[in-house]
Amino acid sequence: MAQTASNASQEPAMDPATREKVEAARNFTFHLLKGIKQIGMYRHNEARFPEFLARAQEALAEYTDRYGPLSLKVEQQNFMLHGEPIFSEDTPLPYKFFRDGIRQLIFRPGLTVQELVSFTLIALSEPERGAEDVMAQLWRAALEHLEYVMVEGFKMDEVSDQEVEVEVDKVVGYLYGRLKTNSDDYLRFARVNADDLDSKLDGVEQMRGLVVAGNYASDELKARLQKEISEEEGSRLFPKLVSAIFQVIEGGVDDTALLEDVFVQLLDAMLIQDDYAIINQLVLKMRAMAQRDTGGSIGKLLEYFVLKMGEEQRVMRLAEMLKTTRPRNPVDITRYIQVLDPSTVFSLLNALETIEVPENRVLVCDVLANFAKENPQPFVQRLEADRPQTVRDMVYILEKSDHPDRVKMFGLVLLNKNLAVKLEVMNIIARGRTPEARKLILEAINDPIAQVRMLAVRLLPEFDRDKAYVDLTRLMKDPNFEKKSTEERTAFYNALGSTALPGAISLMLQMLAVKPTLLNKKKVMEDKLLAVAGLAGACSIQSYKALQGVVEDKTQPVEILTAARKAMYQTKKILFGETAATEEA
Fold first, then answer.
1. How large is the average pLDDT for residues 537-566?
2. Greatest CA span in the chain, whole angstroms?
3. Could you tell me the pTM of the whole model?
């Protein structure tokens, strides 16, 4: 059981001079915490760190110029000065120093803003995630105007191997007082005896040690308490805060700059907590108030707020959240982006590049499609990007936007060197069924890449069967057609058969009826295999009966019979829904 000794003596009331010192110190820590929050929000912009901490450095300089060095006692939950807590709100900052054994921090006159930045970054570091411990970082930084006093720890041999913890704040204060002496006896600090310590240990606040017994909180209890705290912060606390702010506005506030600062601070707080629902509620509330506001001040406030929502650092904060995890409420993210000004499109496109989760990319692209309707140029520019995923996203956005000139824009993608991107875009172009889209597909038949040519041939009949029949037969009569690979010629015949026109079926049947001679046996065999591929492409009752007739014609070579049988079963499966088992049978 823990043994605790408390100082029962009542502390005297604080005199005015001491209170002034405490308030001056609190002014410094207030601006320090504010600067820390801004650094957390703009962590990527290190050049602005001195700007964020400038007010804190000025407050510290004001204290040290008036009262000399600021010596703060480090406790687990707060910094103390004359027995008074200095931080006005909860912060993990003191515990980070306390955990590493630091019990006193002394800020000397002349502390520069750069030294304060270094101190702040050390305080924000996370040793549990790989950073050095605070003590090592302070030693390495060698801050000229910052001193610290630390305690390594104590162990009592008579308590076997059990660790004991003794509060030694007064010991540290006493030893530090010896170090500060103006005496020329520079060895005075080293001469400390037990009587000196005994005289200073009277009234030690508490002693903890030996064996601590009791019931630990269960994991279920911890989880329930954490859930209740989260609900209190998310479901009740912030809505109350927002309601209070709007009540103040409705009561009448003439300071527009103050309102702007309040809402921006609230926006940043919500972004840090990934609470986009509250932000959307703020926008809706301001819109409703702007409609009733005759002076137009609320409308200007709303415009300013929306512009701040779309600033690059805030958009990148959104992207950071979407990068690797799916949001709990995607609708809130969609509404947030929809509100943004069109001028934020470039920031949104840059943010899109960093998102790795496919579902989140689609979410952002769906909203960007609304911007592309009005101004497609930023998206068209990125169609020539080297990154395939970027090109796919831009094609998806332009297609989703239903812009009337989007097919012309896709023409740029057909110049892309990435084969997968070209093939994907060609399928998207074919959905358009417009003359412009057909023209692009027809031009792709002359592409230097065989895969692109074959896909273009297969897509051509999807626009106009009669025109496709004319174009394909013209291309097949070209003298260079026989020089193409067997795979590419098969694609032509398959596409010709897919027109299902009588002329195409008749051509296939004529080719299958040719009798080979000694000199043209190989050529006739190749033509018949192409004809079977053409009938398979037709996929109609007529082509099925024609294939059935080929299978029943035992005068045909084995290769033709095998190919015809396979094509017949595939056609039957498509037409009549036969299963794979039937096909194998």
1. 84
2. 123
3. 0.50
